[in-house]
Amino acid sequence: MNQDNTKDALFTGLRIKSGPIPEMVTVKKNIDALLNKRAKRIFMYKMTAVAASLLLIGVFIAFMRNPTMGESTAYAATKEVVLPDGSKVLLNAHSTLHYKKRWNSWKEREVWIEGEAFFTVTKKPSGYHPKFVVHANGLDVAVIGTEFNVYCRRNKVVVVLEKGKVTATGTGDIKGTCSMHPGQMIELNSTGIHLSDVTPVAYTSWKQHRLYFTNAPLSRVAQVLEDNYGYHITWKDKKRMQDTFTGSCPADDTQMLLKAIGLVYNMSVTVKGNTIIFQ
């Protein structure tokens, strides 16, 4: 074989050897597949981030378009509030009510109370959720349509039912659920949820602008004077705080109440500014 033929054979062999190697083709395919998966993951991450951002923006816009409304009263004052569904709330003195400006059919009607209020709830109003919930410092009061009073002060919640039926559920440290019927009272305090029978007018007379007490300890009378009128109470003899009092007077005439207590218990009751001294 001459030199030229030898070269031709060599080049032909090199061309054959330089062709695609099966193992390298497989490796390339695997690398391409991994790169594609990585690109897809990055794309999905980006799309998820975009979706989350849009959701947050939507929630923010919805929140801004449906602000929380607030109503409050000063000492020795009451106020009626009409809610979006037509339900009515009568706020007692020194109380605050919060609720959303707009309600709809897919979310429960909700309000938040601090202080004291009497609720007259519209039953299953058209275009609104049938359930109505009052949130009161660790106690949720759920109703359909009814009339009841909620007192929420001094780490205590008291619900007195006049008409209908309600269910109260502890949502804080105290758990449990209790159903009520007219003429019953639920009290939530540090010891639990307690159900008892009461005379509703003793707890709701303030709606008629009267103070009404039946065998109430003077300490409770003092709390009403502090919570609703902003007085500071001083006792020279704290044992008198357990004496019970029965009586009624106009809500705007606390002087009549104090005179009656002084006469019944033969004690001196002095008012100095916003301080009442029992002695």
Largest sheet: 13 strands, mixed
Quaternary state of this entry equals: single chain
Top CATH class of the largest domain: Mainly Beta
The radius of gyration over CA amounts to 37 Å
Helix and strand sequence: HHEEEEEEEEEEEEEHEHEEHEE
Number of helix segments? 5
**Average pLDDT figure:** 86
Q: What is the CA-CA span between the terminal residues?
A: 138 Å
Helix content: 25-40%
Shape: elongated
Q: How many distinct domains?
A: 3
Structural class by SSE content? alpha+beta
CATH topology of the largest domain, which one? Jelly Rolls
Low-confidence stretches: 59-63
SS strand fraction: 35-45%
The name of the CATH architecture of the largest domain is Sandwich
Q: Write down how many β-strands occur, each being a DSSP E stretch of 2 or more residues.
A: 18
